Amino acid sequence: MPGKVGLVFVSHSGKIADGLTELAGQMAPGAALVAAGGTDEGGIGTSFEKVTAAIAEADSGEGVVVLCDLGSAILTAETALDFLDDEVRERVRIVDAPLVEGAVAASVTAETGGSLAAVVAAAESARSAFGEVPGPGPADARAGGGASGAVDDAADAALTRTVTIVNRDGLHARPAAEFVKLANTFDAKVTINGKDSKSLLGIMSLGLVRGATATLTAQDAAGLAALDALVALIESGFGEE
């Protein structure tokens, strides 16, 4: 079985790095998440040795994404990269992204088997995920009306499902991660209230609480299976009471 992209969290605080590994692990228990926080003596700072060991531990051959909290942590990670073998260095990426949000998004993508590029992109999406403005939907982009418009409306309706959030705490981190992992098992594109169903941070930014209405839309008929599966997951309450 092929490995998955691993992640390393570099922080000046060992508690922050360990806590982030625990947090991300709740949503991506199958991902290789390694903390590299604090100095060798357990103080505040970073450690070249810890970062180097963490990269080695996280590397399954598919690549490693490194996220850091402050500028000097990036310098430590860059120094560690300089001492890696060329073959290993080629598959390690230091990503400039918010540490917590980037780690969570990247971890879920890694667990779904995403490529190194996909995991990097997921981490980088944290820069703007909560400031996205949904683009125009099919109805906004459509010009004209009459009979043709009526046909288009009927087609759009067949590709759209409306569902009510039923689990007590809404689409918080864990169910949102389950939703994204299921969406990633399909090639088709499905949106939920205008957000990409494969974007964890985008979905969490919606703030969907219990009783809220979610509109899921498939891009085309090829996405109907994904659409139905995602709707069924929401209706199930994600296994929560």
TrEMBL record:
<comment type="function">
    <text>Component of the dihydroxyacetone kinase complex, which is responsible for the phosphoenolpyruvate (PEP)-dependent phosphorylation of dihydroxyacetone. DhaM serves as the phosphoryl donor. Is phosphorylated by phosphoenolpyruvate in an EI- and HPr-dependent reaction, and a phosphorelay system on histidine residues finally leads to phosphoryl transfer to DhaL and dihydroxyacetone.</text>
</comment>
<dbReference type="Pfam" id="PF00381">
    <property type="entry name" value="PTS-HPr"/>
</dbReference>
<dbReference type="InterPro" id="IPR035895">
    <property type="entry name" value="HPr-like_sf"/>
</dbReference>
<dbReference type="InterPro" id="IPR004701">
    <property type="entry name" value="PTS_EIIA_man-typ"/>
</dbReference>
<dbReference type="GO" id="GO:0009401">
    <property type="term" value="P:phosphoenolpyruvate-dependent sugar phosphotransferase system"/>
</dbReference>
<comment type="function">
    <text>General (non sugar-specific) component of the phosphoenolpyruvate-dependent sugar phosphotransferase system (sugar PTS). This major carbohydrate active-transport system catalyzes the phosphorylation of incoming sugar substrates concomitantly with their translocation across the cell membrane. The phosphoryl group from phosphoenolpyruvate (PEP) is transferred to the phosphoryl carrier protein HPr by enzyme I. Phospho-HPr then transfers it to the PTS EIIA domain.</text>
</comment>
<feature type="domain" description="HPr">
    <location>
        <begin position="158"/>
        <end position="241"/>
    </location>
</feature>
<dbReference type="GO" id="GO:0016020">
    <property type="term" value="C:membrane"/>
</dbReference>
<protein>
    <recommendedName>
        <fullName>Phosphocarrier protein HPr</fullName>
        <ecNumber>2.7.1.121</ecNumber>
    </recommendedName>
</protein>
<dbReference type="GO" id="GO:0047324">
    <property type="term" value="F:phosphoenolpyruvate-glycerone phosphotransferase activity"/>
</dbReference>
<dbReference type="Pfam" id="PF03610">
    <property type="entry name" value="EIIA-man"/>
</dbReference>
<dbReference type="GO" id="GO:0019563">
    <property type="term" value="P:glycerol catabolic process"/>
</dbReference>
<dbReference type="InterPro" id="IPR000032">
    <property type="entry name" value="HPr-like"/>
</dbReference>
<dbReference type="InterPro" id="IPR001020">
    <property type="entry name" value="PTS_HPr_His_P_site"/>
</dbReference>
<keyword id="KW-0808">Transferase</keyword>
<dbReference type="InterPro" id="IPR039643">
    <property type="entry name" value="DhaM"/>
</dbReference>
<dbReference type="InterPro" id="IPR036662">
    <property type="entry name" value="PTS_EIIA_man-typ_sf"/>
</dbReference>
<comment type="subunit">
    <text>Homodimer. The dihydroxyacetone kinase complex is composed of a homodimer of DhaM, a homodimer of DhaK and the subunit DhaL.</text>
</comment>
<dbReference type="InterPro" id="IPR012844">
    <property type="entry name" value="DhaM_N"/>
</dbReference>
<feature type="domain" description="PTS EIIA type-4">
    <location>
        <begin position="4"/>
        <end position="130"/>
    </location>
</feature>
